[in-house]
Design goal:
Layout: H1 3-25, H2 33-44, H3 47-64, H4 68-88, H5 95-108, H6 112-115
Length: about 130
């Protein structure tokens, strides 16, 4: 594993552990318009605690370099949702998910062989299938 991948993995784990811990200690900073209403709704319903816990798990998995493919699959869901949020409600903050996407790609690249079967149009036949 090269130094760029290691640095990207460490940056991602720091980002996700810190971002995941924030809902446990403080309310989200106010955002303008619909994004602010959206964030407030998730904070008041305590949904952010579940999201924060998942982000902490991703960060810890990346930090310990254990189950990294699982962490990357979870990370992909967060990246997708972050893009959807920023494109539809807060476009001026779109740089953040772009940076996370780039870091995630750098970390995921060495594991591309593990993910390649997911993108086949036909499933692989197992030995139990006729």
């Amino acid at each position: 594993m090269n130094i760029v991948t290691i640095v990207a993995r460490i940056l991602l784990d720091i980002l996700f552990v810190l971002a995941g811990a924030m809902p446990f200690f403080m309310a989200p900073p106010p955002s303008p318009g619909l994004a602010g209403s959206f964030n407030q709704l998730f904070y008041q319903s305590h949904w952010t605690l579940f999201v924060g816990a998942a982000q902490i798990v991703i960060g810890i998995l990346l930090l310990t370099n254990r189950f990294v493919p699982v962490a990357l699959i979870m990370l992909a869901a967060f990246i997708y949702n972050s893009f959807a949020f920023h494109i539809t409600m807060l476009p001026q903050g779109l740089f953040a998910p772009v940076i996370v996407l780039i870091l995630g790609y750098i970390v995921a690249r060495p594991y591309s062989g593990l993910f390649a079967p997911l993108f086949r149009p036909q499933p692989l036949r197992t030995q139990r299938e006729p």
